[in-house]
Amino acid sequence: MARIGVDVGGTNTDLVLECTKGVFYHKVPTTLKNQSIGVVQGVQGICTMAGIDPAEVDVIVHGTTTATNITIEHNGSECGMITTEGFRDILHIGRHKRPYNFSLHFDVPWQSQPLVKRRNRIAVRERILPPTGQIETPLDEQAVRDACAVFRKRGINSVVIGFMFAFLNDTHERRAKEIVLEEMPDAYVTLSSEVANVMREYERFSTAAMNCYVGPKTAFYLRDLDARLREAGVMSKLRIMQSNGGVSTVEACAKRPIRILMSGPAGGVIGGASEGGMAGVANIITVDIGGTSADISTIPAGEVKIMNPRDTYVSGHPVLTPMIDLVTIGAGGGSVAFIDEAGAFHVGPRSAGSEPGPACYGRGGVEPTVTDAQIVLGRLDPDMALGGDLKLDASLSHKAIEEKIARPLGMTVKQAALGIIKIINNNMALAIRSNSVARGVDPREFSIMPFGGAGPLHGVALAEAMSCRDVIVPVAPGITAAVGLLKTDLQYEHTEAVIVELNKAGPAEFARINAAVSVLRARVAEELDSDGIPRDQQRLTVLAECRYHGQGFELRADMPEGEVTAANVKTIADSFHDQHQQDYGYSYRDAEVELITLRVIGSASVRRIEIPTIAKTDGSSIDRALMFVRPTTFDDGRTLETPRYDRTKLYAGDRVPGPALLHQHNATTLVPPGYVAETLDYGNTRIRAIGA
């Protein structure tokens, strides 16, 4: 039985394969015009490395940035929207938030980059009343047909349907969808009640609009990839990593691509949490640094956190879908260094990507990047990139930094290269603080875990900036996100709005709650059934999302076993109080608690990838792993003769004193002077200050 994890980044596509012959790692350039081409090439390449036929692969789990990139590049589908009369401008008005309260030049993304242009938002007569969902005004079906005629005339084939209070009664939305598909049989249609069946019309409409905005292109990519794999002889199941850390099917993600907006980064966080367990470290700050971006997440006590719904924004738009708690910034090996019109020195967020890539790639890129700076400083060996598979030209790096940075600023090339590294490290340190210190987490109690192709070169510098305990480098840092894809479970979620004051609830309210839970359980079980999961292997978890009366947002609380009754309803309120105390440091035990939303999470365990341990040290010299010695410049400006070691030839317990570089095919680890790198049981590495 063979399984493959494939993580597609902005620069490289990373793969891991587990089979009876062992665990294999591979990295290929991302094909930006059509990512599926690079994925298929990578799958074929790693199967060749392992000496197996592609037909032997049972499952491929894929982390993709396709949907994310659409939101970043603002090149989604032209959408039309049918909404309730009088509420056409909900998507424009939003919450009247000012992103920067005191700035005269701030940007409002939901207005400057709308998911649905105003002229394409058409209001129709219909009205449903709260709190019961009673129909006040029937749906004007002819108005829906007229809207479809406008959409056809404008060449629009992606339609959002969002009506007021549809979360209480979705009859009008479902009927409108039927009409749209009668008038436009090939349309991509999203109902707000299908993707976010919860209160808050702006966030619900925005979520539905985002689904339609990224949907057609994402669905095409997923189905095209599935077809290309089959053409290449790979008949395995294709599963997609979701933003919440679970995996799902191609069809489910094609219908609801908002589930995979954070698909790529999620695999890295799952992999980082697993690597922390392998190293015996519970508190981890993961820093996934690729070619284009850096994804940062704080994992306390080994528990991956899910964002509060109030924080789940993508490119400035609220999206009500569960996401792993992380921060993404434009900082990676391909981040471009430049001097702006005012003479200020910047690095990122713009990236050279893989085409043309950093100047050293020799593919036509002339702008200096972080990778070029690492080469100039001797921290990357041009003849050793990807184990020698990727040949780099150091002279092009030197030329780019000299012409674009050093000469205009009147400094040496080495000083300019050090400046690039210090700026990018500072940018990442600020992002780490926003995900830790700003939330009451003390980094001094955590270990930094750098991974991604560029991560281990920055690990010690980030640990110093954050005063972290030490640095844990994963077994295959450049492939950690792909490894994480094989360490997660199938997972589906469904929600239902049920607004009840728990302290005043009686038999009628309990009946509503229990009926909603029953419906949600059936929906989740149906999805797991369609994925071939036997009922005895399905795990269903029911959660209540509650708030104090008058609060703006909810927190998750545990539900009692079995049906909710007068005898156990207090369990929900007590769980909410406990969660509120944990998150905010206080709670009001006598205050009214409102149940707002019920959520059922269905999951099924899959076999996890097993990383083998390595041999214990036999007391021999680490010179067995010595490759060569070359000069390397460190953050303090000193240039020292620095040995390079083959990381794969180090045994558990071996200690490598800095200065040193640890080479492997998918990444290079920097060990500065004054630090020592100790190889752990699985081939992972702990770096700490000598004497610490």
UniProtKB/TrEMBL annotation:
Q: Which residues form the Acetophenone carboxylase-like C-terminal domain?
A: 511-676
Q: Name one GO biological process term.
A: glutathione metabolic process
Domain Hydantoinase A/oxoprolinase per the UniProt entry, residue ranges:
204-493
Source organism's superkingdom? Bacteria
SUPFAM superfamilies per the record? Answer: Actin-like ATPase domain (SSF53067)
Where does the Hydantoinase/oxoprolinase N-terminal domain lie? 3-183
- Write down any Gene Ontology CC term: cytosol
Supply the InterPro entries for this chain: ACX-like_C, ATPase_NBD, Hydant_A_N, Hydantoinase_A, Oxoprolinase-like
In its UniProt record, a GO molecular function of this protein is: 5-oxoprolinase (ATP-hydrolyzing) activity
Q: Which PANTHER family match?
A: 5-OXOPROLINASE RELATED (PTHR11365), HYPOTHETICAL 5-OXOPROLINASE (EUROFUNG)-RELATED (PTHR11365:SF23)
Protein name in UniProt: Hydantoinase/oxoprolinase family protein
